[in-house]
C-alpha cells in the first residue's frame, strides 16, 4: 500500500511538472530595448491549437484604454490592443515535444507578422518566443505569471 502511494505521488509530481512545461498560462512580456514590462499575454490551448491574447497593458505609454493596432495590416487592423490575439495557430511540434510552432505572432508596434516558435525553458518559468521572417529571427524571453 505504501509503495502504491509513493508511486501515485511521483506520477502527480511528474504531471504537475509537465503542465508547467506547456506554454499555456499568463506571461509577462519584456521590451527588448528598455527591458520594461510591456504586457501580460494569456496563452490558451483549444484542442491542440494554441493562441495568445493581450490580457493587460503594463506600459504606461501603450496603456491607453482606446489604443488599437493601427499598424496591423491583416484582420487585426484597428482592433483594440487589449484582448488582441497576437499569437495564432501554434501546435506542438511533431519533431520536438518541447516546442510549439507553425503559427504566427504580430508585433503591434509595427504591424509585422512573423512565423513563430514557443519553447518553455527554465522548468517552465520562462518562455522563449522566437519570431522569423525568412532566415532572420529575433527571440524574446517572457516570464510566467501564472
UniProtKB/TrEMBL annotation:
Naturally occurring in which organism (per UniProt): Rhodoferax sediminis
A Pfam family hit: DUF2147
Transmembrane segments: none
Gene3D superfamilies on file: 2.40.128.520
Protein name: DUF2147 domain-containing protein
Leader peptide range in chain numbering: 1-19
Residue ranges of every copy of the DUF2147 domain listed in the record: 25-144
Entry keyword Signal: yes
Keywords from the UniProt entry: Signal
Record flagged with keyword Signal: yes
Amino acid at each position: 500500500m505504501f509503495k502504491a502511494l509513493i508511486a501515485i505521488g511521483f506520477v502527480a509530481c511528474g504531471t504537475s511538472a509537465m503542465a508547467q512545461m506547456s506554454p499555456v498560462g499568463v506571461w509577462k512580456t519584456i521590451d527588448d530595448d528598455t527591458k520594461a514590462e510591456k504586457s501580460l499575454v494569456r496563452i490558451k490551448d483549444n484542442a491542440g491549437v494554441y493562441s495568445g491574447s493581450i490580457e493587460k497593458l503594463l506600459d504606461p505609454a501603450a496603456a491607453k484604454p482606446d489604443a488599437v493596432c493601427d499598424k496591423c495590416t491583416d484582420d487585426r487592423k484597428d482592433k483594440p490592443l487589449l484582448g488582441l490575439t497576437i499569437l495564432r495557430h501554434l501546435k506542438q511540434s511533431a519533431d520536438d515535444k518541447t516546442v510549439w510552432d507553425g503559427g504566427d505572432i504580430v508585433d503591434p508596434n509595427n504591424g509585422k507578422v512573423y512565423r513563430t516558435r514557443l519553447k518553455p525553458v527554465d522548468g517552465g518559468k520562462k518562455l522563449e518566443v522566437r519570431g522569423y521572417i525568412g532566415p532572420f529571427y529575433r527571440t524574446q524571453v517572457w516570464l510566467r505569471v501564472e
